Amino acid sequence: MSFFAKLFGLKQKATVSKDVVTQATQESPLFNQPSFLELIKKRRSIYSIGKNLQHTPSEIEGLIQEAVKHSPSAFNSQSSRVVILFNESHQNFWNIVLDVLKTIVPAEALAGTEQKIQSFAAGAGTVLFFEDQDVIKGLQEQFELYADNFPVWSEHSTAIAQFAVWNVLAEQGIGASLQHYNPIIDEKINIAFDIPAQWKLRAQLVFGSIEGEAGEKAFIEDESRFKTFG
User: Fold this and answer.
1) What residue numbers bound the domain in which 109 lies?
2) Structural domain tally of the chain?
3) Which residues of 143-165 are buried (b: 16+ CB within 10 A; e: fewer)?
4) From the centroid of its chain, how far is CA 8?
5) pLDDT digits 0-9 by tens, 15-68
6) Going by C-beta distance under 8 Å and a sequence separation of 6 or more, which residues neighbour residue 109?
7) CA dist., res. 166 & res. 82, Å (int)
8) Is the overall model pTM greater than 0.70, yes or no?
């Protein structure tokens, strides 16, 4: 059982999909049981990615679903929604992003933009994170005292879901980076992938095999960031 299986309280079930995910996780040569802190340190923005994964799309889908399902949300709203893109759908998504960018990026910067988008398309898949606005509006009506807070708490929920998925992938040796081409791509993406109108796009996590390691990460001084009392 992987670290995140233990963290999310997952139990082995007699369903084919969950058994496949569990077996694939345990048999993976990348499988280990590092501490949660070690996993957080391992999760980095990996921009050099490819399609050379040892995991099948169904295995990755199962991991992502479980990570999002067991991510906490305010009032247990479970407002996060996810679309997972592989193969032609993944390529089509980044084609759409590039087409939109071509209409707004200056000509002198277009070559660099195309190179960047092609590096994302070179990956194995993309996870689109949405927040269901109907859920948020429903909570605002039900708990009027906290109405102004629910949109903020929704952002917390999607951030936690993104963090969970990113770490689950990192645990399996899959590289990823988080992108934010919303809202300029929202309209075309909603049409292309039949996204419900109430789903609001918040982020895109592109992932694949690690073809190049992340650079050294810089940190600000702890003294400027933390205070402890007591």
Assistant:
1) 45-207
2) 1
3) eeeeeeebeebbeebbbbbbebb
4) 17
5) 334 454 455 445 555 555 679 999 999 999 999 999 999 999 999 999 999 999
6) none
7) 13
8) yes
Does the pLDDT of residue 219 top 50, yes or no?
yes
Give pLDDT tens digits for 178-200: 999 999 999 999 999 999 999 99
Question: Is residue 189 included in any domain, yes or no?
Answer: yes
For position 52, which CATH number holds?
3.40.109.10
Question: Per-residue pLDDT for 224 more than 90?
Answer: yes
